[in-house]
Amino acid sequence: MLNQESQDPASQWILLNQEVIFLHEKGRYEKAASLAHRALGLAEQFNDPNHPYLAASLNNLAGILDAQGRYVQAEPLYQRALEIRERVRGPWHADVAASLNNLAELYRAQGRYDEAEPLYRRSIQILEDVAGPDHPDVATCMNNLAGLHDTRGNYDKAETLFRRAYQIRSKALGKGHPDVAVTLNNIAALYESQGWYAEAKPLYRRALSILEKALGRSHPDVATCLNNLAGFYRVQGRYAKAEKLYRRSLDIRKKSLGADHVHVAASLTNIAGLYFAQGKPSRAEPLFKKSLAILEDALGPDHPGVATGLNNLSGLYDALGKHETALQLCRRALAIRTRALGRWHPHVAVSLNNLAGLYESRRMPRQAEPLYRRSLEIHESVLGPGHPDVAVCLDNLADLLRKMDRGDEARVMEQRARKIRGED
Predict the structure, then answer these.
(1) Does the reported pTM lie above 0.90?
(2) What residues contact 133, with CB distance under 8 A and at least 6 apart?
């Protein structure tokens, strides 16, 4: 418990803020949010609209709300913190760059990619100017912008930025630094998403080696790297190898973060998905359920992460023939994502696609078609008409159209999908 009653307001704020940061890092978001509101109240008592504690309080509370998926509440706080920092520090200060990066990350989470990109670029510009082009903070912003390009299917741009971030971090921090491992992991994931498995594997392994040496074999970051390497083996069908790594990752996370942490939920989901892929639904179901319970408790029932858990259970129940239950869960996932992320987010498109698939499997093509088309519309609008996920949507719609004896329309969709994949 905090003991602040006998201290001056500034000292109270410092202690309170330290506790907020600690709880946030531990994933205890509700308690962190409660204390962050108190810290903000203390900062406002200074009656100074430009006080640095006020900007920090706004930024910290926004970060917690962001982590909870409460993006609408987080945005004005990030913006207010940015305005204070620009007013006090001037437009070319590192604190302004940090605020720009935070706001860009929020927009990326919401699928507002066109709004996020210029903020990332401005943040990089500022940091290059005030800290120099080879500063680690420049690499961090470049890494985030690269992730945006990766999401949008701009793989060449993403790789260029990831590699530049790697060069900066290696030079400034040393090749054995954990941040270098993070960049190697990101490049590996980029290669894996393009099917370049031979190129991805040594990077994953190298990243894991660096993290184990720098942080120890039981660090949460090591667990994340193990999780990614396990996913790599899973994609290749090497399930026994993947399960071993997933379980080691789960053990580390339970011991270091606690059994009810969202990262533990992610590990449970991954193991459940592995069992499901091997045709072992009875082993997958309790893990999916446990994961969903952790997410609902840690993040609240309306977080996008909960929607992902619902979606996983929906797929499982559909495979087990429990179609009505599957439909109910899928509809709830769609509703959560639409409320939290907006109607034009790629994750909403995924939920629409999944719901369409459930209707299609129940031989309800007229209910499925408009959902497939809406999913395609979102993907094309947000990710661009040449994105690989657009090709998947086109194939799904084509399959449905063929079942409806609309072969000419299906062929048009299939031709577009082949063109995106470079098969024509």
Answers:
(1) no
(2) 168
